Amino acid sequence: MGVKDCGHHENKKKKLLIKIGLGILALLILIGLIILIIWAVLRPIKPKFVIQDATLYNFNLTSPTELNSVFQITVQSRNPNDKVGIYYDRLISYATYQNQQITLPTAIPPTYQDSKEINVWSPYLQGPSVPIAPYLCTAINQDIAMGSVQLVIKMDGRLRFKFGSFVSGTYRIHVNCNAFIPIGNTEAGIYVSRNVIKYTLFKSCDVSV
Fold first, then answer.
1. In whole angstroms, what is the distance from residue 145 CA to residue 142 CA?
2. Model pTM?
3. Counting beta carbons within 10 angstroms of the beta carbon of residue 155, is it exposed (0 to 12), middle (13 to 18) or buried (19 or more)?
4. Are 58 and 208 in contact (CB under 8 A)?
5. CA atoms within 13 Å, Cβ hemisphere of 183
6. Which of 77, 126, 160, 199 could form a disulfide with 189 if both were Cys (CB 3.0 to 4.6 A apart)?
7. Can you give the C-alpha Rg of the chain in angstroms?
8. pLDDT above 90 as % of the chain
C-alpha cells in the first residue's frame, strides 16, 4: 500500500514539473513574440553616411605600375532611428580606384551610437607603393590631366541594433562613398600646410545592411 502511494506521489510530481516547464517555455515564447512584434513595428532604419571632405597628402605614380597615396577623409554617420541604438562592432575603411583597392584598410574603433546621434570619423588612408595594373596608371594620368580623380571610399563591417535591453544579432554593413577629388586644381581646395590640400566633398554615401 505504501509502495502504491509513493508511485502516485512520484507521478504527481512529474506532472507538476512538466506543467512548470511548459509554463516557463510558453512565457519565454510569449516574451520572444512581444520582442519580435515591437522590433517589426519599430523597423530599424539603416544608418546614414556622408563623406564631408578629403585632405590630400600624397597621390602620385612612382613607376608605371605603382601608386603612392596618403590622405585623410572625414565621414559622418547618423542614426536616424528614434528609439533604436546602433553598435558598430567592426568597421574598416579603404580607398579604391576603378574597383581596385589602393590603400591599406584602416580600422575605426568600435563604438555605440544612440538614437538620432551623429558620429564623425577621420581615418587616415595610406597606400605606399601599391602595385596597380598599367592601364590604371594611364587612366589616373588622364584623370589628373582633366582635373579630377574619382575614388570610392569604402567602409565594411558589422553592426547590431539595440532597443531597450534587447540587442539584435549581427548584421553586415557596406558603405560606398563616391569621392571626386580635383587633384591638380589647387583653387578647388584649401591649403592646410605645404603641399597638403583639403577638398570639401559633402556627398551622401550608399549604405547597405
1. 5
2. 0.79
3. buried
4. no
5. 22
6. 199
7. 27
8. 61
CB-CB contact of 48 with 77 (8 Å) = yes
d(CA 77, CA 112) in angstroms, rounded, equals 12
Nearest Cα neighbor of 60 from 179, 177, 152, 143 is 143
- Which residues are within 8 A (CB) of 43 and not within 5 positions of it... i.e. 6 or more apart? none
Least confident of 5-9, 52-56, 110-114: 5-9
- What integer pLDDT is reported at residue 44 of this predicted model? 87
Reading the block at residue 127, the C-alpha cell is 597606400
Burial 177-208 (b: 16+ CB within 10 A, else e): bebebbbeeeeebeeeeeebbbbebeeebebe
**Cα distance between residue 198 and residue 53, in whole Å:** 7
